[in-house]
């Protein structure tokens, strides 16, 4: 899903594009590898596929994807991946990714919805056992039944913070005690960086180049 945005420096400008042109769009000089102040590079793609990142906190737009549909930081949905990369999430439909009756993981039909998401934090394999144990215990609680969902007061964010507090993993669990502090430290930096990439992507959908002064 990476659109492959490229950047090169020439004649005191940064030029963003998806295909390197034969001529500089600013000065019209022919380009070869000796003309660049800095060789072209690929702009880092900020999004990940949740299923490839186990033991992670992941976030995506409530509807659609980041590149095409994201406009408002309030319109975000957050979830947790288990050690297998299944997304466990809470919404108006209740808990997904876990069967509360059998208390077993169930890979959700919506897993493809998480193919373009932001990863807020990921833990290493040493956490596999305790991560899954705490996540399963939290997920099967009646607190996450569909009729308990409230868009403002008891939502996906509430679920993830409850899990992090129960995990007792140091700083991350401490920050999860205060939703505003958690957002400031983990959500805002990621969405701000992603916002710059999204803006660049949309510019390049409308035009072949995006040019910045250095």
Automatic annotation (TrEMBL):
A Pfam family that the UniProt record links to this protein: DUF4796_C
Matches recorded under InterPro entries: MKRN2OS-like, MKRN2OS-like_C, MKRN2OS-like_N
Annotated MKRN2 opposite strand protein-like N-terminal domain residues: 3-31
Limits of the MKRN2 opposite strand protein-like C-terminal domain: 40-204
Name of the molecule in the record: MKRN2 opposite strand protein
